């Protein structure tokens, strides 16, 4: 990738900050961008890439700002977008809120960051933790350490040398979010698992970690039973992972950053049955009355427990005096949401809990013509994964040979989880 320059604009296209890296573009070339971008957005296309003559503009929008990269070369656009998102993350880490005001208040610091993040159009140090060691900010004033930390010139730019801990520990969380859409008959219309592996590393020195998963591809390559393997899709790694090693034998080997970071993310589109199913039945004792019986059923392992389950049951916006009772949990009427909010703090697998709901309507026909919102469910189940992914091992190797404690935890939670009712 080779960028000619970086520009930060307000929504009207006025440049707030600009940095030219190669000097191969005209100073007013950015004036062509905003008209092209607005024209694309007005047509409903909203392309993140626009071109003018020999110039290519790749941009992202954040809050009330445009972050634009300009190039005259046949550059890898995916890398440009990756850099722009890294730039956004860096600014948010420094200023907490990235908006027009914070840009104006910190322009000196931003110019310094732009010079360290990129050199002659090529990305350099993009890890905020490392940048904060020698570029600091106090009351909008820039203070620069006399020498950059070794990590800037080191091959391992995301970790500094000389880190020491009295107690060496490594915490690993496997977090999966379940996106699910189910119709009233129980047919799954859409299911998707979005997973991430997050680490919190407190390790001395420059340790190398090796992570083994029940990866189906690896099982196939080694002739093992693939029934227990999980086929991961859209896998994305932190830059610390040795991709060449992963391509050869599917081993996830890396020298980790210090502290918290996301090691990898993945996606699965395999069919998944509802973890928490909501069964509804409706009776109409009169033209303007409705009675509902809802059953929340835990369709996961009995040894697991869902915590802080929140079920949002929609009611018509013109419902009169909704009345409800539930033998387990707490239910409240939320007129601002036109829904009953039912909270169950602890929901063991295999259990079934009812909710009885009655309400009146000005006219039953009004309810029939009104579009029915789906029931939404929120939950968190520790020590459980929907995909069946497992950490087979987490090895920590360091030349001093110290002992370290790895901790592994699994969490499944809701994503966009909706159930359509009758």
From TrEMBL:
Biological process according to GO: intracellular protein transport; vesicle-mediated transport
Keyword field: Cytoplasmic vesicle, Membrane, Protein transport, Transport
Membrane topology: Peripheral membrane protein
Signal peptide: none
GO cellular component, one term: clathrin-coated vesicle membrane
Major localisation: membrane
Protein name in UniProt: AP-1 complex subunit mu-1 isoform X2
Organism: Oopsacas minuta
Lineage: Eukaryota, Metazoa, Porifera, Hexactinellida, Hexasterophora
């Amino acid at each position: 990738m080779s960028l000619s320059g970086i520009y930060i604009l307000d929504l009207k296209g006025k440049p707030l900050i600009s940095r030219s890296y190669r000097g191969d573009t005209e100073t007013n070339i950015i004036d062509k961008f905003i008209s092209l971008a607005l024209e694309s957005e007005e047509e409903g296309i909203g392309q993140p890439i626009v071109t003018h003559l020999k110039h290519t503009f790749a941009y992202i929008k954040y809050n009330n700002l445009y972050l634009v990269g300009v190039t005259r070369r046949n550059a890898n656009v995916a890398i440009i977008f990756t850099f722009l998102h890294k730039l956004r993350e860096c600014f948010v880490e420094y200023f907490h809120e990235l908006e027009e005001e914070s840009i104006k208040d910190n322009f000196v610091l931003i110019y310094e960051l732009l010079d360290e993040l990129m050199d002659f159009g090529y990305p350099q140090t993009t890890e905020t933790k490392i940048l904060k060691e020698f570029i600091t900010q106090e009351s909008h004033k820039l203070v620069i350490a006399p020498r950059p930390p070794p990590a800037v010139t080191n091959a391992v730019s995301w970790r500094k040398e000389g880190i020491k801990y009295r107690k060496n520990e490594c915490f690993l969380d496997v977090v999966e979010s379940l996106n699910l859409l189910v119709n009233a008959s129980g047919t799954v219309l859409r299911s998707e698992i979005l997973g991430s592996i997050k680490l919190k590393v407190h390790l001395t020195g420059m340790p190398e970690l090796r992570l083994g998963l029940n990866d189906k591809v690896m099982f196939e390559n080694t002739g093992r039973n693939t029934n227990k393997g999980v086929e991961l899709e859209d896998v994305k790694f932190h830059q610390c992972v040795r991709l060449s090693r992963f391509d050869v034998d599917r081993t996830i080997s890396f020298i980790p950053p210090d502290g918290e970071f996301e090691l990898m993310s993945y996606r699965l589109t395999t069919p998944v049955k509802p973890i928490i199913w909501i069964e509804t039945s409706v009776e109409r004792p009169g033209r303007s009355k409705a009675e509902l019986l809802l059953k929340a059923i835990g369709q996961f392992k009995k040894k697991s427990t869902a915590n802080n389950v929140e079920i949002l049951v929609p009611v018509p916006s013109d419902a009169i005096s909704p009345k409800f009772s539930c033998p387990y949990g707490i239910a409240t009427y939320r007129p601002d949401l036109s829904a009953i909010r039912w909270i169950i703090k602890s929901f063991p697998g295999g259990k079934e809990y009812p909710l009885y709901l009655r309400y009146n309507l000005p006219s039953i026909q009004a309810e029939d013509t009104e579009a029915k919102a789906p029931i939404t469910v929120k939950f968190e189940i520790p020590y459980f994964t929907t995909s069946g992914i497992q950490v087979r091992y987490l090895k920590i190797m360091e030349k001093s040979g110290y002992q370290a404690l790895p901790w592994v935890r699994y969490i499944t939670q809701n994503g966009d989880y909706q159930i359509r009712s009758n």
